[in-house]
Design goal:
About 60% of the residues lie in helices and about 5% in strands. By secondary structure, the chain is mainly α. The protein folds into two domains: about 60 residues; about 60 residues, Winged helix-like DNA-binding domain superfamily/Winged helix DNA-binding domain (Arc Repressor Mutant, subunit A, Orthogonal Bundle). Helix 3 packs across helix 4.
């Protein structure tokens, strides 16, 4: 009976040692997992922040001409409700209620230039902007009947 008890004691010691080793490995893996999860959370936050910043600074004008960016809509509204037909970047800044520092006016000027490229505004003079007039439909030349002027005699 003594040999069976010795075998059980030996097996118990081996199992206890395996448990200790596995717990150490679990601890190390838990630390590694926590570090990787923190990195992932940081990357998600960075992506969200960059996406938000890019969408705020990039004009969102779709191919169909629809303006998704509120600033562009406000600029167009300023031209539509403005007293003058033409405005400079500083005038638009005043109309929008934003500062007139160079950083403000240059940002607005860039947006005005983008609206000119989209043919929503025109720039009749350098730095002077106005709403583009809707293009008039081009009329096809009328074809007239053969010349039947009185000078021609029928043959």
């Amino acid at each position: 009976m003594q040999s069976i008890l010795d075998l059980l004691t030996e097996r118990q010691a081996v199992t206890a040692e395996a448990i200790t080793t596995l717990r150490e490995q679990i601890g190390k893996l838990t630390d590694e997992l926590r570090a990787v999860e923190t990195d992932l959370a940081d990357l998600v936050t960075t992506r969200t922040t960059l996406t938000r910043l890019i969408s705020m600074s990039t004009p969102q004008i779709s191919d169909d001409g629809h303006l998704d960016n509120t600033v562009y809509q406000q600029i167009i509204a300023a031209f539509q409700t403005g007293t003058g037909t033409t405005m400079r970047a500083k005038d638009v800044c005043h109309a929008l209620g934003i500062g007139t520092e160079p950083k403000d006016t240059e940002g607005v000027r860039a947006k005005l230039k983008r609206l000119v490229k989209r043919q929503i505004l025109t720039e009749p003079e350098a730095g002077l902007f106005t709403l583009a007039t809707p293009a008039e439909p081009t009329r096809a030349p009328t074809t007239s009947a053969p010349d039947s002027s009185p000078n021609m005699k029928p043959t």
